[in-house]
Amino acid sequence: MKSYGGKRAVDDLSFTVARGETFALLGPNGAGKTTTVEILEGFRAPDAGTVRVLGLDPRRDSERLRPRIGVMLQETGLYRGITPREALHLFASYYAAPVEPDALLRLVGLEDAARTRYRRLSGGQRQRLALGLALVGRPEVLFLDEPTAGMDPQARSATWELVRGLQAAGVTVVLTTHYLEEAERLADRVAIIDHGRLVALGTPAALTRGDATRVQLRAPASLDVRALQALPSAQGAESPAPGLYVLQTRDAGSLLVELTTWLRAEGVVPNELRVGAESLEDVYLRLTSNGGS
Question: Between vectors from CA 166 to CA 164 and to CA 17, what angle results, nearest 5°?
Fold first, then answer.
């Protein structure tokens, strides 16, 4: 638990991350993601509760824990005149057996910018440098805060491949991201938090309801949601926005027959009809304050 000025930023939040797992923390701005990660990193002390990382207390055992974790921050606080090569050599000097800095430059795709002053790096290049600095000490646990923010699609794809390589090497990754696709592709499990509380926890497949299918309908007329819910193959129906209707089913073929028959009887011609699995973004919007509920 953690509060600021009477506002509870982290509220009875509890989860466990397995060794070698990639674990994503999702939530709206102000949900408590950053505070949670900063407590795990040892930068903030909780007001109550117990925190352990690699079996150690992040605050009390910080000297023993710090060499074993890597932290990627959105703001590195680097001197603006330093170059990526100089920064990596500097950080490498803090560790007994660091990754060779030039190898890291290649790994994060900064070879061509190795001698460019930090102030002249693009946002995506600064993100890649921050990732390299987090990796220099060969961490057992890696904390990534919005790792691909500001990156172009090519750099984002390369970073995903890098994270997959870390997964294969057994590194534990704790990831915060606003890119729902990123969490869906990389994470073994996802925790969704809102107002400091855990609202969902599980694998992306489990959170997207496994074999359930999502049928999305757009219609020019106002439809009776209760009638949609009453269709024999529908497991649920809702109207998240005017003219938009979403139904859940485990028998898409039967539901489509029932739905189109019902629409014809009502004299309604749909503007759009889509069938597919519920995405992680759908789940996220449904469960958090961003969903408008």
Answer: 95
Helix axis angle for 153-168 and 123-135, nearest 10°, is: 10
Delineate the domains of the chain, giving CATH numbers in brackets. Answer: 2-205 (3.40.50.300), 213-276 (3.30.70)
For residue 203, give the amino acid letter: T
pLDDT in tens, 63-94: 999 999 999 987 888 999 999 999 999 999 99
Q: DSSP character for 121?
A: S
Distance CA 206, CA 124 (A): 32
**pLDDT at residue 215, as a whole number:** 93
Q: What's the confidence (pLDDT) of residue 271?
A: 95
261-269 long-range contacts, Cβ below 8 Å, gap at least 24?
262/227, 262/228, 262/231, 263/219, 266/221, 266/223, 268/219, 268/220, 268/221, 268/223, 269/219, 269/220
- Extract the residue ranges of the chain whose pLDDT is less than 50: 292-293
